[in-house]
């Protein structure tokens, strides 16, 4: 087992300092380019070689890591911590000192943990996990002018020095609708859960359909896992007098059991999945879709799976178990933190360092940050097959020609 595994697997806080002496060069790459608007022929991201390491000082560059070590999210927190440690080990960064504090199971403990690492000199904070904790702890970082890289997909948690590492549902909906429109689909419907996630997906769906010249024919909101059959739904999946289906595509952004409940309801209304394309988000990636005839042939947007598989093999070879998908974000966050620490202005110039329009090449592909702190990713489009997702449109390797 990798020597780091024993150290990282035993983290139990409230405050733990560690300096990691690492193996290799930089893995995450900052994209090079003009630094401004890129031309259509801009080259793909190029790896950045790690700067020479100065001799280790008694106190190195300090990065706060605020993740749950207790509570229901402790296992996820452990995986995020492992991935962050793994990044440091891969980066050859003996000048980095981690200040780790338990974010616990509540916003209040996340605030206390953030105060802890900031009070001990952290120049940047990675974490916490979840929108509620990020929003609560962000005030502490902002008061001290310290950048925070938080794990959330709620855009309201971002801004004013807080940057989010998650895959936003808005960009996934926009990507898959745009691809469907490019394939000639013009009439769209959506089946969306009630609640905040459904609200975000609904707004993104309406915007994306309109932007691509399509028409929203029907939208239904339902309690997650409880879509009920209705005559409106039956009409949606039944050919008209002319033999045409009322819509070309139906967006179902949920995955897992909630998605299976939706498809079972549609199947009960006579829907066979052959005449209308189902569209989804990255929530589909963790679902066993190949055995469901209604999702076969469906399209969804997300990071290409092969990139994560390489990271997962590296992680599993180190720690002995397979990481959750979110662990890749912690790896990227730590690598970004090291990039920022090594730029001429260090952490004091983090905003400029994170504002690169060319972005960064991370574990799950290309990403960059908007001015409001939300991320933008280069997403692939996958098609559901009996043997698993198949990439039908690769993720872009440059943001050239895309709005920012």
TrEMBL record:
Keywords: Amino-acid transport, Signal, Transport. Residues 1-29 form the signal peptide. SUPFAM superfamilies: Periplasmic binding protein-like I. The keyword Cell membrane does not apply. GO terms for biological process: amino acid transport. It comes from the Bacteria. Belongs to the leucine-binding protein family. This is Leucine-binding protein domain-containing protein. The keyword Signal applies. It comes from Zavarzinia aquatilis. Residues 61-387 form the Leucine-binding protein domain.
């Amino acid at each position: 087992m990798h020597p780091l595994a024993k150290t990282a697997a035993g983290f139990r806080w409230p405050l733990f300092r560690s300096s990691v002496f690492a193996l290799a060069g930089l893995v995450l790459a900052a994209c090079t380019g003009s630094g401004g608007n890129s031309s259509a022929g801009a080259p793909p991201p190029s790896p950045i070689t790690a700067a020479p390491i100065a001799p280790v000082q008694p106190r190195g560059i300090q990065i706060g890591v605020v993740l749950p070590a207790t509570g229901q999210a402790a296992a996820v927190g452990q995986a995020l911590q492992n991935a962050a440690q793994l990044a440091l080990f891969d980066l050859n960064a003996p000048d980095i000192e981690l200040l780790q504090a338990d974010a616990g199971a509540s916003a209040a403990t996340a605030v206390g943990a953030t105060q802890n690492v900031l009070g001990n000199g952290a120049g940047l904070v990675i974490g916490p996990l979840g929108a509620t904790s990020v929003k609560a702890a962000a005030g502490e970082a902002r008061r001290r002018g310290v950048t925070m890289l938080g794990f959330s997909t709620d855009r309201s948690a971002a801004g004013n020095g807080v940057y989010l590492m998650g895959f936003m549902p808005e960009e996934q909906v926009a990507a898959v609708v745009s691809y469907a429109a490019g394939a000639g689909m013009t009439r769209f419907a959506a089946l969306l859960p009630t609640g905040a996630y459904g609200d975000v997906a609904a707004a993104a769906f309406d915007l994306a359909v309109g932007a691509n010249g399509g028409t929203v024919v029907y939208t239904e909101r339902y309690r997650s896992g409880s879509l009920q059959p209705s005559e409106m739904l039956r009409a949606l999946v039944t050919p008209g007098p002319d033999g045409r289906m009322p819509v070309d595509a139906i967006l179902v952004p949920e995955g897992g059991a909630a998605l299976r409940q939706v498809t079972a309801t549609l199947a009960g209304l006579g829907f066979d999945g052959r005449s209308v394309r189902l569209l989804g988000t990255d929530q589909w990636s963790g679902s066993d879709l190949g055995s469901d005839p209604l999702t076969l042939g469906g399209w969804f947007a997300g990071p290409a799976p092969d990139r994560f598989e390489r990271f997962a093999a590296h992680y599993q070879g180190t720690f002995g178990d397979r990481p959750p998908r979110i662990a890749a974000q912690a790896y990227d966050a730590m690598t970004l933190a090291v990039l920022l620490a090594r730029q001429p202005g260090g952490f004091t110039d983090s905003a400029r360092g994170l504002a690169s329009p060319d972005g960064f090449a991370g574990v799950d592909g290309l990403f960059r940050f908007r001015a409001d702190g939300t991320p933008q990713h280069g997403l692939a489009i996958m098609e559901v097959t009996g043997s698993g997702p198949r990439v039908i449109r690769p993720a872009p390797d440059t943001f050239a020609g895309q709005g920012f």
